[in-house]
Amino acid sequence: MKNLTILTICIFLFACKKEKSTEYSFKSCNLTSSNLEVLTKQDGTLIYTNKLGSIQLANYSFFIIISGALPLQICNMPSSIRLRQDEVQKVSFSGKMIVLPSTTDALSTTLELSALNIH
Fold first, then answer.
1. Does 7 have pLDDT greater than 50?
2. pTM of structure
């Protein structure tokens, strides 16, 4: 009986194990675009950089790179998250992205985060 209880507790703890995450507070960016796409539980690469491809930007900013889309410039990155210049981290995230018209010539688009897990 004691072994069964211990086994049950171990199974319960293993089943409840979640990905390591930290709760962050995200402020609203007040995105004004009428064409927003909600992204849920996406995987990408977080980078703090002032360069996209061969283009030098005026300031360092946080971007998430995902497959098949423009780099996502984060408009509401919590100040508690710090990366060194050009440091990259794998992340999972959710948020709202501005979808630009296909005729727009742009280096990136804007992302308002609602969740972020750094791996």
1. no
2. 0.79
